[in-house]
């Protein structure tokens, strides 16, 4: 599934939060055996990984769009507007580093 738009983004983020909470419940459940916990966690981890990949793909697509917009804005830019363009470029680079950080695994 590919995320299209902010509504689907929110649904995906909410589902990810739910799965992370579910993983915590599995790990802390006092009456489940280790084997049962491992089996349940395998499925939850797989779903979490899928959602994280989808979120990253969406965020990278948004960054790519920002880069294209910046490139277009830089065509024939006035010198007085360069500091603003540089700041926008740095903001995009910061977002890239955020998105490309490895996700914290459970």
How are the SSEs ordered, and which strands pair?
Elements: H1 6-28, H2 34-74, H3 82-100
Helix pairs in contact: 1-2, 2-3
Please tag this protein with its features.
mainly alpha; 3 helices; elongated; 106 residues
How would you characterize this protein structure?
There is one protein chain. By secondary structure, this protein is mainly alpha-helical. It is 78% helix and 0% strand. It contains three helices and no strands. It has helices at 6-28, 34-74, 82-100. α1 packs antiparallel against α2 and α2 (34-74) runs antiparallel to α3 (82-100). It is elongated and about 65 Å long. The chain starts with 5 loop residues before the first helix and ends in a 6-residue tail after the last helix. The relative contact order is 0.12.
